[in-house]
């Protein structure tokens, strides 16, 4: 059973009675934790935590400043999403090497794990596109994103694309007997399903857009609080962690802390997985906002610094490749556009170049071949003469594969 003594009176929520029936063990009774609505004012935070928040804001500002100075910062979006997809999926137990994620055929992923990782990229593309259109997030939109995330994976079920209709549990206590029911052995039992869950999720999304909150709470602190709330509600049968971490970047975008969704937050949290989950649980049981917000802000600072360094390294690789072109006899403008495309798409076909650059297939094929001769591009996998052959930029790939 969940240790009820760990939930202190100041915990930001309350316990509710739940019950059900197990096919093997019959009826059961337990309790679930329902978080209280988030406050309009920030929680009490220490000076140490506010320093961490300030450091986080400075790192995010430096990243954003660099992005705003670039002629086309959008080309760095997809590489960042691929790195985030790999790590955020690893946090949920789905592992695929980043090199395979970067080079996978998105239309025909070779295995289920890669399909699941690439689904995250599709989901994030959709979410960030909606934000750019100025559409406010609502529950139906999150349901649509969740359907994209689990499509064609082991997580797909009749509940895909809708809030969960059954009780779920998170983790397993180390002291739980081997034969204990999952509900009794759980480390944490989130909100029960039903109309209240849907209403509480919509309340969270409304809170994230509330002008009073935006005036009173620093965006980094607000992102931390919103992340906790989403993970604690645990509204879907699968994909909660990945959607929750996506919402971190989404919130920073809507508050114009970031221009482009180039921030990859999950590599840092993945490296501290146990501590991450411990902090989330401690907020529920003891209201330990201060430690969690400090941990969260430190993660954003480190993630922003890492992303910033990778972005600068990609800019250097981009300039190096274009310098080779300038010293050749190639027509620079189209060749430079292909370099930009090769950074935004780490593996691609000639047909994709034709479509992206708006040139004929023959010209695209010739241009790719010329950049291969210059050493700017290289064939990937299949023999260079085969139909559907794919290419990549080795100099950019070397930066991307070490993103984490």
Automatic annotation (TrEMBL):
Domain of life: Bacteria
SUPFAM superfamilies xrefs: Fic-like (SSF140931)
Molecular function GO terms recorded: ATP binding
Keyword Secreted: no
Domain Fido, chain residue ranges per copy: 137-298
Residues at which ATP binds: 238-245, 276-277
Swiss-Prot/TrEMBL keywords: ATP-binding, Nucleotide-binding
Gene3D superfamilies assigned: Fido-like domain
ATP-binding keyword on record: yes
Active site: 234
Alphabetical list of InterPro entries matching this protein: Fic/DOC_N, Fido, Fido-like_dom_sf, Fido_containing
Listed Pfam families: Fic, Fic_N
Protein name: Fido domain-containing protein
């Amino acid at each position: 059973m969940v240790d009820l003594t760990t939930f202190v009176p100041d915990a930001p929520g309350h316990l509710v009675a739940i019950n059900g029936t197990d096919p093997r063990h019959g009826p059961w009774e337990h309790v679930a934790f329902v978080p209280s609505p988030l406050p309009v004012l920030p929680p009490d935070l220490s000076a140490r935590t506010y320093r961490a928040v300030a450091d986080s804001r400075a790192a995010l500002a430096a990243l954003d400043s660099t992005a705003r100075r670039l002629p086309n910062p959008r080309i760095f979006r997809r590489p960042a999403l691929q790195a985030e997809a790999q790590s955020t999926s690893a946090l949920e137990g789905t592992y695929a090497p980043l090199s395979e994620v970067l080079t996978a055929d998105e239309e025909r992923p070779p295995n289920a794990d890669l399909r699941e990782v690439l689904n995250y990229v599709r989901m994030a593309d959709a979410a960030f596109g909606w934000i750019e259109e100025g559409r406010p997030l609502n529950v139906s939109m999150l349901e649509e994103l969740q359907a994209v995330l689990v499509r064609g994976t082991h997580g797909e079920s009749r509940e895909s694309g809708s809030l969960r209709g059954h009780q779920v549990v998170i983790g397993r206590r180390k002291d739980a007997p081997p034969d204990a029911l999952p509900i009794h052995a759980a480390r944490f039992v989130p909100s029960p399903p039903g109309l209240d869950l849907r209403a509480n999720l919509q309340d969270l999304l409304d809170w994230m857009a509330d002008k009073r909150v935006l005036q009173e709470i620093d965006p980094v602190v607000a992102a931390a609080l919103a992340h906790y709330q989403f993970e604690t509600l645990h509204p879907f049968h699968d994909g909660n962690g990945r959607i929750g971490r996506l919402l971190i970047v989404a919130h920073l975008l809507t508050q114009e802390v970031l221009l482009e969704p180039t921030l990859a937050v999950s590599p840092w949290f993945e490296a501290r997985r146990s501590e991450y989950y411990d902090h989330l649980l401690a907020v529920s049981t003891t209201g330990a906002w201060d430690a969690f917000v400090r941990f969260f802000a430190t993660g954003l600072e480190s993630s922003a610094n890492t992303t910033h360094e990778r972005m600068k390294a990609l800019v250097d690789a981009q300039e190096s490749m274009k310098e080779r072109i300038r010293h050749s006899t190639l027509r620079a403008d189209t060749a430079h556009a292909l370099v930009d495309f090769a950074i935004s798409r780490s593996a691609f076909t000639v047909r994709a170049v034709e479509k992206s650059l708006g040139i004929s297939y023959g010209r695209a094929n010739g241009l790719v071949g010329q950049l291969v001769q210059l050493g700017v591009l290289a064939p990937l996998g299949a023999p260079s003469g085969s139909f559907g052959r794919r290419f990549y930029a080795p100099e950019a790939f070397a930066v991307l594969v070490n993103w984490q």
